[in-house]
Design brief:
The complex is a heterodimer of chains A (114) and B (120). The model of chain A has no long low-confidence stretch (mean pLDDT 97). With 114 residues, chain A is an all-beta fold. Chain A starts with a strand and ends with a strand. In chain A, the strands form three sheets. In chain A, strands 2-12-11-6-7-8 form a six-stranded mixed beta sheet, with no helix packed on it. Chain A has a four-stranded antiparallel beta sheet with strand order 1-3-10-9, with no helix packed on it. In chain A, strands 4-5 form a two-stranded antiparallel ribbon. Chain B is mostly beta strands and 120 residues long. The N and C termini of chain B lie far apart (40 Å). In chain B, 0% of the residues lie in helices and 51% in strands. The model of chain B has no long low-confidence stretch (mean pLDDT 97). Classes of the chains: A mainly beta (114), B mainly beta (120). At the A-B interface, strand 6, strand 7 and strand 11 of A face strand 5 and strand 10 of B.
C-alpha cells in the first residue's frame, strides 16, 4: 500500500501570511499514460466532514477560493494558502487515489493562527 | 443538491455486528463509485472501502477484509456497510461519500457521518 506522510503535523501562521503543507507518497502517484498525479487535498473543520479542495494535485474544486493552490508531481506535493484567513483554520489531509485501492490518506496537518 | 445521510451507528459489543446505511439524493446514484471513510475519535481519516457503480467491484482496507462488506442498491439510491466481528479499534465516525466522476478517485461529497462505538 502507498503510505502518505504529511509535514508538518501542525503549523501556526499569521493572518495574511502564506501557509505551506507538504505531502510525500511512498511511491509515485503520477500515471504516465495521462500525465496526471492521483493526489487530492481536503480541509476538515471541527465537527464537520472533510471538504475537497484540490484534485489531480493542482485542480481546484469548484467554489474553492483561489488562495488555495496545489503543486508537485511524482512523490512530493504541496498545498499552499497564499494569504491565510481566519476561516482557514482546520486540519488538512492529502489522499492518493493511484491505481486500485486502498486510497490512503496522510495523517493530517493542523493549521492554526499565530 | 447532493445529499448523503448515514444511519445505523450506535453502541455495540466487541464481536457484534452493525449495518450502516447511506441514503443518497440529488444526483444519479448509479453513475458514481461510492466509498466509506472512517475517523476514530481525535484521529485522522482512514479509507475503508469502495464500490463500483454497478456493485461489481469492491475494495477494502486490509484491517476490515473478511469482516466488513460494502454493498449498494441503485434502485433505492442507497449504500451499505455490513460490519461483523467488530473490534474496539473499529470505533469511529463512518462517513459515506461519493467518488468524483471527474477527479479520479477523489471524494467530492461527504455525509455528516454516523458514530460507531465498540465497547463492552
Amino acid at each position: 500500500d502507498i503510505v502518505m506522510t504529511q509535514s508538518p503535523d501542525s503549523l501556526a501562521v499569521s493572518l495574511g501570511e502564506r501557509a505551506t503543507i507538504n505531502c510525500k507518497s511512498s511511491q509515485s502517484v503520477l500515471y504516465s499514460s495521462n500525465n496526471k498525479n492521483y493526489l487530492a487535498w481536503y480541509q476538515q473543520k471541527p465537527g464537520q466532514p472533510p471538504k475537497l479542495l484540490i484534485y489531480w494535485a493542482s485542480t481546484r474544486e469548484s467554489g474553492v477560493p483561489d488562495r488555495f493552490s496545489g503543486s508537485g508531481s511524482g512523490t512530493d506535493f504541496t498545498l499552499t494558502i497564499s494569504s491565510l484567513q481566519a476561516e482557514d483554520v482546520a486540519v488538512y489531509y492529502c489522499q492518493q487515489y493511484y491505481n486500485t485501492p486502498p486510497h490512503t490518506f496522510g495523517q493530517g496537518t493542523k493549521l492554526e493562527i499565530k | 443538491e447532493v445529499q448523503l445521510v448515514e444511519s445505523g451507528g450506535g453502541l455495540v459489543q466487541p464481536g457484534g455486528s452493525l449495518r450502516l446505511s447511506c441514503a443518497a439524493s440529488g444526483f444519479t446514484f448509479s453513475s458514481y463509485w461510492m466509498t466509506w471513510v472512517r475517523q476514530a475519535p481525535g484521529k485522522g481519516l482512514e479509507w475503508v472501502a469502495n464500490i463500483k457503480k454497478d456493485g461489481s467491484q469492491k475494495y477494502y482496507v486490509d484491517s476490515v477484509k473478511g469482516r466488513f462488506t460494502i454493498s449498494r442498491d441503485n434502485a433505492k439510491n442507497s449504500l451499505y456497510l455490513q460490519m461483523n466481528s467488530l473490534r474496539a479499534e473499529d470505533t469511529a465516525v463512518y462517513y459515506c461519500a461519493r467518488v468524483s466522476s471527474s477527479g479520479g478517485g477523489s471524494v467530492d461529497y461527504w455525509g455528516q457521518g454516523t458514530l460507531v462505538t465498540v465497547s463492552s
